[in-house]
Amino acid sequence: MIGNIHSVFSGGTVDGPGIRFVVFMQGCPLRCKYCHNPDSWEFGVGEERSVKDLTQEIIKYKNYFGTQGGVTVSGGEPLVQIDFVTELLKSVKSYGINTAVDTSGFTFNENSEESVKKHEELSKYVDLYLLDIKHIDDNKHKELTGVSNKNTLNFAKWLDKLGKKMWIRHVVVDGYTDDNEQLLKLSAFIKTLNNVEKIEVLPYHTMGTVKYQKMGIKYALEGVNPPSKERIIEVKNILKG
Ligand code: SF4
Predict the structure, then answer these.
(1) Which of 55, 112, 166, 219 is 20 to 30 A removed from 158 (C-alpha atoms)?
(2) Where are the domains of the chain?
């Protein structure tokens, strides 16, 4: 099976536990204003790689993963290519390697039997989900990403029922995702889930702006500064309740 890959990185330390081989899948239906990888948006481009070829590359690093590390599939939105990701993680797991998926949960549709089935099949090969909840308020989520948060929140509940381990991730952007009242609502939602092992609060950064310039796309967060360390601590405390 062939997938469209944006890039791979063999020394990841920020996308799941330990040292990880990160596969960034190409293509994303969201348009997060703070996205630092606009070059990962377009579908059907990127490098075409087979499950077999990518697995062979990954297993070379097996000894570096130690007891905690492994493989993380990220993006773009990786689950747009869910069939490929399922086959890849099935293959990687057969070598005893730990697996994680970093997703917005957008592709999950609880009303579609096919969607649920595909996510169910994938979940057999995923040790940890890194689930990005970008905004708890649906309208604000739409303003920020162009899409509803309904699928994301439903996916969180569904994964929880399945008993899958999750890390919830939230990017803090001044004036967009750091309203205390909304953060309390997000915290209350997270508290309804039983399998959240960690809440990761990630500061917005401006490192992707050069890509926007190169691609000739207007950067929506022009002039917005990264949050202070103190604010990140405050947000962590609110979310952890
Ligand atoms: S989901 Fe990720 S890749 Fe897609 S637009 Fe948002 S930040 Fe960018």
Answers:
(1) 55
(2) 2-240
Q: Is the CB–ligand 1 distance for residue 55 below 6 Å?
A: no
User: Would you tell me which CATH number, out of the four given (3.20.20.70, 3.30.360.10, 3.30.420.40, 3.30.450.40), belongs to the domain 2-240?
Assistant: 3.20.20.70
In short, whether 107's Cβ falls inside 6 Å of ligand 1 is: no
pTM for this model (two decimals): 0.97
Strand duo 2-12 + 20-25: pairing: antiparallel
Q: Is 74 in the pocket of ligand 1 (CB under 6 A)?
A: no
> Which has the closest alpha carbon to 174: 133, 239, 225?
225
Return the residue whose CA atom lies nearest to atom 2 of ligand 1: 76
SS3 assignment, position 173: coil
**Nearest CA, atom 6, ligand 1:** 32
Report pLDDT digits (tens) over 101-155: 999 999 999 999 999 999 999 999 999 999 999 999 999 999 999 999 999 999 9
